[in-house]
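Lab meeting, action items carried over

1. Structure of the two-component assembly. Owner: GW. Status: complete.
Input record:
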Amino acid sequence: MKVSALQQSYLNRRSYSFRSSGPLDSSSDSAVKSPAAIFWLVLHGLCCLISLVLGFRFSRLVFFFLFSTSSTNFYASPFRSTAELANAFDVHSVLSTNSITNIELPLLNKTVANSRVVVGRHGIRIRPWPHPNPTEVIKAHRIIERVQKEQRLQFGVTDARTVIVITPTYARTFQALHLTGVMHSLMLVPYDLVWIVVEAGGVSNETASLIGKSGLKTIHVGFNQRMPNSWDERNKLESKMRIFALRIVREKKLDGIVMFADDSNMHSMELFDEIQNVKWFGAFSVGILANSINTDETADQKEEEETSRMPVQGPACDSSNMLAGWHTFNTLPFAGKIAVYIDDRVTVLPRKLEWSGFVLNSRLLWKDGGDKPEWIKDIDMLAGDIESPLGLVKDPSVVEPLGNCGRQVLLWWLRVEARADSKFPPRWIIDPPLEITVPSKRTPWPDAPPELPANEIPVMGIEEPIVKHSTKTRTSRSKRRS
Amino acid sequence: MGKCFWAFLFIAFGFAPSITAEHNPRTERISGSAGDVLEDDPVGRLKVYVYELPSKYNKKILQKDPRCLSHMFAAEIFMHRFLLSSAVRTLNPEEADWFYTPIYATCDLTPTGLPLPFKSPRMVRSAIQLISSSWPYWNRTEGADHFFVVPHDFGACFHYQEEKAIERGILPILQRATLVQTFGQRNHVCLKEGSITIPPYAPPQKMQARQIPPETPRSIFVYFRGLFYDVNNDPEGGYYARGARAAVWENFKNNLLFDISTEHPTTYYEDMQRAIFCLCPLGWAPWSPRLVEAVVFGCIPVIIADDIVLPFADAIPWEEIGVFVAEEDVPKLDTILTSIPPEVILRKQRLLANPSMKRAMLFPQPALPGDAFHQILNGLARKLPHQKSIYLKPGKKILNWTAGPVGDLKPW
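Predicted assembly:
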C-alpha cells in the first residue's frame, strides 16, 4: 500500500475552494454540501487520531482512494477535461487509450503502475523504473539524425563534392593513436569521402587493419622507402608521398576536393563544411600546437600575430578580405631547441607553411581537366620536391582564403612521436597474455616504491601491467619487432 | 495554325509549374483561418482612446524602479508606450471603440525583483474612480468597452499564490472590462470570458543578439533550465507546479536525452537553439517566458500545464506547433516524445521557422507589423462592434463598488 504519509491538506483546501468558487470544478457537487462536509469532518478527525497513533501524517484522501471505484485518476477531477482534450490532439491519440488502461489496472489489482514519491500535496509521479528505455533512446537518436539531415539540406552546402583525403603514414608506436583520431573524424564527415593512405615502407597489416575498421572508401598504397629518423628527411619523404597520392588522384580521375590530413593532426568538423566552398585552390588557418617552452619572451612577439598564444599559419587578409600575405611560423624563439630526430624531447616545429592547410580541386590535377586555370603546374613537370602546395601554383595570389578569410582556425597541427626504439604489441593486442611484468631498470618510474613485486597476472587478455610508463617491458616471450 | 496554337499552350502550361515550383521548404505558413489572422493589420479597424492619468499611476512608478522595464511583466509599460504613438490612437474619445487606462499595477518590486500585488487592487480602484468621475465613458458602459493590461501571475486576481488569488477572484470593478493578461487556464476564476491572453515579455534585443548560425546541428533532444523544487516556498515538493516539475526531475535526471538542470548557464539562448524540444512546464502559474523563447529559437515547446490557455489562442494553432503533455503523463514523457513521427517534428519546426510566428510573440521597440502589440489590437478589433446591451441607461449601476476585501477599499 502506498500513500503512507501523503499530506493532502493542500488538496483538501483546494477541494474546499473548488466548492466555494463554482466555475473551478466542472463537476462540483455543490448541491450536497452539508452531509458531505460533516462526513469529511468526521473522517478528518479519524485521520488525526490515526496519525497520533501511527506517528506520521495520515490523510483522509487514503479513504477516498480506497473507496473510489471510478476508473479515472483521482487527481483528474479538476483536470478530467484534459483526457477529453487529449483526444483532440493527434499526439495524444496514441497514448490516451494506453493511459486509461494503465490506471484501471492498479485500482483493480490494488497494485500501482505509477508509484509516487510520498511528499507534498500532489504526488510526484515517478514510474517504477525511471531509467531510459533503449528502444526509445534509439528512436530519439533517429529523430535527431533526421532533424540534422534536414538542417543540412536547408542550410548546408547544396551540391556537396566528394572529399579526397590524403594521409601519409608509417607503422610506428603512435600510429594507432593518431590514425584512429583521424579515422573517427573522417567517419563523422557527412559528405562522400575517399581516403588515400600512403604508407612509407610498403603496405603493412597494422595500417590495413586500422583503416579497415573505418568503413570508409580507402585506397591504401605503399611507398617503397622507409621513413627516416630525422624530421627534415621525414618532411621531405612525406611531401613525396603526397605527390604520389596526387598522381593516384589523377590516374583514377577522382572528382572532388583534395585535402591533406596528416595522421597526427586534429580536424574540426567545420573544416569539412568550409572546404566545400573552395573553387580551385584554397588555404585556411592552421593552429600550431608546438609546445612553447619559453612563453615569456615569446609572448610579445606572438601578441601581434594572434591574440592567443597559439601560433597560427595561414592566409592573411587585408581589410577588403582579399589575400594579402601569409602568416607563417616564427622559428626564432625556438632557436636551439628544435627537434632534429623524431624522438627528440624538444619542440617539433612545422615548416613555413604546412601541407595540411591547403585544399585543392581535384580537377586541377587532371591531365586534360577541361577548364583548368593556367596557373597550375602539372605534377609530372615538377622539377624537384615541393615543400608546400604553393609550389604547385605559379602565382600564389590566386589562392582563396577560407574560414572567414583565415580568421577561423579549422585544424590543429601537432607532431608527437614515441621513442624510435619503442616497441609496441602488433595491433595493440597482447596475445598471448603477459605472465610476468617487471620494471625496466633503465628508466625507473621516479616516485615508484623501490621494490616492485612481480605479479602473476591471470590469463584474461589485456591486463594493465603494474609498472607502466616504461616503454620497455621484459617479458618472457619475445615480441615481434614492428 | 490552330494546332500550333494548342501545342504552344500545352508547352507553356507544361513549363509553368516548373517555373513557379521554386518554393522555399524552410518555413511553412500557418494556413487557414487561424494563421492568416496573424498578418492582419489593425490600423483602420479600431480606435483606442488613452486616458490621461496623473503620472503617479505610471511614470512616477517607473521612475522609482526602472527594473520594471525588463522583467516579464513589462508588457503593460510597453503597451502604453506603443499606444501613445500608434496609428490606432485617437484623441477624440467620442469616436473611440476602446478605452485604455495606463496604469502600471505590477511595478511594485521587492529587492530581488518579484512584484508585490498587494497595492495593485487599490491602485486600480483609485484609477477607475478617477476616470469615472472625470470622463463619462466609464459610467456609460461600466467599463465594458475599456481594456486593462494585467500581466501579473494570476491576472486581475492580483495575488501570486493561487489559492489566495482564487479566493479573491477577479477585482469586482473589472468584471465588465476586457482584460489583457498573460495568465490563461480553462475553468479558472482568474480567466474571464473574453480576455485576451498575451505572451509574457521577453527582451527582443537580447534574444536577437544571441542567434547562432542556423546550420548548427540540433543535437540536444530535450532541454530545460529552471527550478524543479522551490525550496524556499515548498521544500517538500508537490505544491510547486502541482508536482509536475519534480516528476520531470525524478523520472529523467538520469536520462541522457534530457538536458535538464537548475543551473543558470550563460549560453541559455544558444543552447535552446541547439535543442529539438524545450520543456515549458507550469510553475506557480501555468505561463512562463519559456514559451516565447522556445518559439523565437525554433525549439518545439513541450507544454506541461493542464488546461492552459496559450497566448493568442484564437490566432495561433498551438496544437500544430507544440506538444501538449498532461501532467499525469509526465512519467511517460520520453515515450511520448520519441513516438512522434519525424515528419510531424519537421513540420512543427517549419511552422516555428515562420517569421510571423516569432514576431507575434515579441514586444519589439519600436513596434513592427505583426508583433504582439498588433496581435492584441487584432484581438480587440475582433471583438468589435460592441453589442448594444453594454450601454447602460444613465444612472444604472451593475458593478458593486464595495465588493471585495476591506483592504481593497482603502484609497491609494
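2. GW to write a short summary for the group page. Key points so far: Residues 39-201+371-386 of chain B form one domain. The mean pLDDT of chain B is 87.
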